[in-house]
Design brief:
Number of strands: 2
Helix content: over 70%
Distance between the termini: 16 Å
Order of helices and strands: HHHEEH
Oligomer: single chain
Structural class: mainly alpha
Radius of gyration: 34 Å
Strand order of the largest sheet: 1-2
CATH architecture: Up-down Bundle
CATH topology: f41 fragment of flagellin, N-terminal domain
Number of domains: 1
Amino acid sequence: MQYSILKRRKIRALVIIGILLMLLYVKNLLERQTFRSISNTFTEVYNDRLVVEGYIFQISENLFQIQKLIDHCNIDYDYSKVINEIASNEKSILEIIADFEATNLTEQEATYLTDFKKIIETDLNIKSYDLLYSDSTGINRAQVKIYDEKISLARQDLDNLSKIQMEEGEKLISKAKVLINRSQIWAQFEVALLIILVVVMFLLLFRKSDSNRGMI
């Protein structure tokens, strides 16, 4: 009779140990998934936000050079090849935009980037220097003003794209914090399971040892 009771206790203890080990295994699987999510989040922060902010800065620099050429800011500059130089800057911008488009764009980003690309490809696609300057009348201020207004619109798109990088970056960092906090909770859960496991094993061994002494 006593042997039967001991056997049942032992089986019950082994079942509890098995459940605890299973919970530890499941916890480890979930924690691996959490760490993968954290890694992916920080990768996204770098590839889709920090790198993109660098793209925006490069585009802004090229756009600034285009505006300088259109506005004839440097009086001593040789403007004989200005159309080619503007086209070269626009080509550089479009190459950067191609890299930008390959990132994980939000709906708003896609809208602003499409609008910006249209301005570069269409509105600032200057075919003739005569649109900017002629020997008889000098700088075509009316046309230059139109181009400046288009550049202002392009800069607004860049500013909006830059703001999105900040907003989305903050969201990703918040997500990473949640994942890290969740990982810490899982770690505490694991410690609790290990303590319970040790207690169960101790009781199993202690009761078995105590019962053996009672039988003697």
